[in-house]
Amino acid sequence: MLVLRPGCETCDTDLPPDSGSAMICSYECTFCSDCAGTLLHNTCPNCGGELVRRPVRPQARLVNSPASRERVYQPLTGERLTRHAALVAQYHGVLPAQR
Asked: How far is residue 38's CA from residue 14's CA, in Å, rounded to a whole number?
């Protein structure tokens, strides 16, 4: 089952289960659409994977399959920023399936 993390890993913005602006990679790292598009260039800083819109779980299903409460907050600063810039440069123009 997909983990619905409650916030953006980069800026800690709240991303409730019904948010249409949550973006994830194939490892379920979670970011807001603002960070994903502008700061991260739709490239996950953890794995280099593509960031896509996270699906919304229907409200009725949240009763038995609730969203996660575990927040992951890793601001993109210092060494992390440097590593991400290298990923973006490495994958510039390369389709996600070919990375």
From this structure: 18
